[in-house]
Amino acid sequence: xxxxxxxxxxxxxxxxxxxxxxxxxxxxxxxxxxxxxxxxxxxxxxxxxxxxxxxxxxxxxxxxxxxxxxxxxxxxxxxxxxxxxxxxxxxxxxxxxxxxxxxxxxxxxxxxx
Amino acid sequence: xxxxxxxxxxxxxxxxxxxxxxxxxxxxxxxxxxxxxxxxxxxxxxxxxxxxxxxxxxxxxxxxxxxxxxxxxxxxxxxxxxxxxxxxxxxxxxxxxxxxxxxxxxxxxxxxxx
Lengths: 113, 114
Prior knowledge:
Number of helices of chain A: 0
Oligomer: heterodimer
Strand content of chain A: over 45%
Structural class of chain A: mainly beta
Low-confidence stretches of chain A: none
Number of strands of chain A: 11
Number of helices of chain B: 0
Mean pLDDT of chain A: 91
Helix content of chain A: under 10%
Number of strands of chain B: 11
Distance between the termini of chain A: 41 Å
């Protein structure tokens, strides 16, 4: 079965600092990969997706992620954190392109002023 | 565009009861998936409906059942509720054949089982 591992359940960054959220997946073939964000009391919002095109994927709100097949990783970054980035972030994989996503446990981001 | 709408937003039930959650997909979407998100965890896939049939199912017992109506809206039913069923239930819609597996999620229905 496909799985996703998010390293670090909590990340705290200063406003203006780099945000780095780690995600590793298990798959024998490159899957479809996603990052979602969840604000308190809200559903999930898609940040970006990898679908076997460019390995560096740009998303909304200044986020981007790089697919590295050799490392089976899909880490999410943002050069400069903003207070509004405080939320929970989920990495997800869809190995068969059939809309059945497997999610990681999530990483909560706190932004310090 | 109202996006995906779910009802009710919150509800409280007792063990052994039954619950029905409802979902209206985003306009233009024909596929509905349901996910369970327990506190502090990522969402877990329950099942997916397309053309009024269950197309895929995750590792959930038969107490969890669903339905999709001709207008693409969907219901999730859970029978014989257990304390462990307490969670946020998320509905997600998509359009078959559109590619790139993009799901649009609703805000969820938070179920508390006492």
